[in-house]
Structures are given as structure tokens and as C-alpha cells.
Design a protein that fits this description.
Layout: E1 2-6, H1 9-26, E2 31-34, H2 38-52, E3 62-65, E4 67-69, H3 80-87, E5 99-100, H4 109-122, E6 128-131, E7 153-156, H5 159-165, E8 178-181, H6 184-189, E9 192-197, H7 203-211, E10 229-234, H8 235-243
Parallel strand pairs: 1-10, 2-3, 2-6, 3-5, 6-9, 9-10
Antiparallel strand pairs: 4-8, 7-8
Helix pairs in contact: 1-2, 7-8
Bound molecules: 2-phosphoglycolic acid.
Length: 248
């Protein structure tokens, strides 16, 4: 695992964006696995900026997003489809039909999930998977559990995730209780993984994911078995790793 130690959120965002931009330059037809949440927002701003300066293009890029809340329409202001539109897709030249976000309104979740995995397989898996991490170690919405789930699936969100995401909703009760999430299989199938983290509240999850036991109790720990992971994190998110004596 290569670790980039950045001083703060902005430096983390710029580094992550430069790695994603590099992928689009070297492989203009790449498949990007994309993530939502506050972690990648800054990186998307840099990418939009560089696109507007004519430095990069998404014309040939295909994208597959990690997850979506069950029950939220694509135009709901907290849906992950809406997040992607307003943070990236609406501002760059990606072809709308080439972007996929799980359908939170699907009437047949099992069939939808199977189709999502089949689509990812048909693309030969993603070239670069961007990941944030939950305070509890979740990646995508693969929550701590007693086993890893390989396939795209419907997840019951943990209380800790509902608490963490309540800040985006009018009240905690408005936070959806379920999500559709890409499984560990598609994430581990990615040719490269770009894991990003900022802030002290991620320090524990990062420490456990990088050097703790590999366990579904901390889903991020499975990344220790991936051959090509880049971690971009700020000082605060790396603080426990540094305290544990890991050289970064
Ligand atoms: P955040 O969420 O980027 O909003 O902190 C990350 C995650 O829960 O995966």
C-alpha cells in the first residue's frame, strides 16, 4: 500500500484529484468507481476546475458509483445520484449514459443488484475505485458484520452510519435505513483502489484498516489483500497509524 501523507483536507483533495486525473489522461476510456460523501467533494472540485481549464476530459470515461440510499429518488437532494450530478457530472463532459449509480427506487432489488454486478463484470471491473471510509470502517455501505458480502446488495445501515449521515438530513428520522451497496467483490476486483480519509474521526478506521486484523468487523481491512491500494490521507486521519509506529 502506498501512503500519501497530506497536511489537511485541501491537500488530500488535490492529491486524490491528481491521481484520478492521471488515470483519465493515461487511459481516456477508463472505468472509474466513484464515491460520495464529504471526503471526495474537494477532489471533485479540483477535477471540475482542471476540466474547465481544458487540462482533462471525461468524454471517454465510464463511471460506476458505490452506493445509493434505498427509497430516495434520483432528484432527491440527498440522493447519491444528485450528489454526483451536482459535484461532478453536470460540470464535466462525461456522457450521461456512461454514468451508473444504483437505483434507490428499484422495485426488484435482487434483480437490480445482480444486473449491477453483471454490468461491472462486463466492463472488466473498474480501473480505479475511489473510496472514503466510515468511522466504523465501512467501505461503500459494506457495514461491519460477521462476514464479507461479495455481491452488490441491500444493506441495513448501522446506527453509527445513520448518526454520521444525519447531518445531511432535516432530522435523524429522515435518514434512510437501507442502501444498495456494491459488494466487496467488485471493490476488490478494481485494478487500483484510491482510499481517501480526512479528520481525526477517521483515524481509528484507517489504523485498523491498514494494520489491524483482516476482519469483516472492519470492512476496510480487506484492502490489505488488494495488490494496488493508494491511501491519501491528512495528518489527522493518519494520527493513530503514526502513533502505532507505522512509517508513512
Ligand atoms: P464521509 O463518508 O466522506 O462523508 O465522511 C465516508 C463514508 O462513510 O464512506
Amino acid at each position: 500500500m502506498r501512503i500519501f501523507r497530506e497536511k489537511d483536507y485541501d491537500a488530500m483533495s488535490r492529491r486524490a484529484a491528481s491521481i484520478i486525473a492521471g488515470e483519465t489522461v493515461h487511459n481516456p476510456g477508463c472505468v472509474l468507481g466513484l464515491a460520495t460523501g464529504s471526503t471526495p467533494e474537494g477532489a471533485y472540485k479540483y477535477l471540475v476546475d482542471w476540466y474547465k481549464q481544458g487540462l482533462i476530459s471525461f468524454r471517454g470515461v465510464l463511471s460506476v458509483n458505490l452506493d445509493e440510499y434505498v427509497g430516495l429518488a434520483p432528484d432527491h437532494d440527498q440522493s447519491y445520484r444528485r450528489f454526483m450530478q451536482s459535484n461532478l457530472f453536470d460540470h464535466v463532459d462525461i456522457v450521461p449514459e456512461n454514468t451508473r449509480v444504483p437505483d434507490g427506487l428499484t422495485k426488484d432489488p435482487a434483480a437490480f443488484c445482480a444486473e449491477y454486478d453483471a454490468y461491472i463484470r462486463s466492463l472488466g471491473y473498474v480501473d480505479m475505485q475511489l473510496l472514503g471510509i466510515g468511522r466504523n470502517g465501512h467501505i461503500g455501505f459494506n457495514e461491519p458484520d460477521d462476514h464479507f458480502v461479495k455481491e452488490t446488495h441491500v444493506v441495513d445501515l448501522t446506527e453509527s452510519t445513520i448518526d454520521a449521515n444525519a447531518r445531511f438530513f432535516a432530522s435523524r428520522d429522515d435518514v434512510p435505513k437501507q442502501a444498495i451497496s456494491m459488494g466487496i467483490g467488485a471493490i476488490m476486483g478494481a485494478k487500483k483502489v484510491l482510499l481517501c480519509a480526512s479528520g481525526e474521526d477517521k483515524a481509528d478506521a484507517i489504523c485498523k484498516s491498514v494494520c489491524g486484523p483482516i476482519t469483516p468487523n472492519c470492512p476496510g481491512s480487506i484492502l490489505q489483500l488488494h495488490p494496488n491500494v493508494v491511501l491519501v490521507a491528512d495528518e489527522a486521519a493518519l494520527s493513530k497509524l503514526i502513533a502505532a509506529g507505522v512509517e508513512v
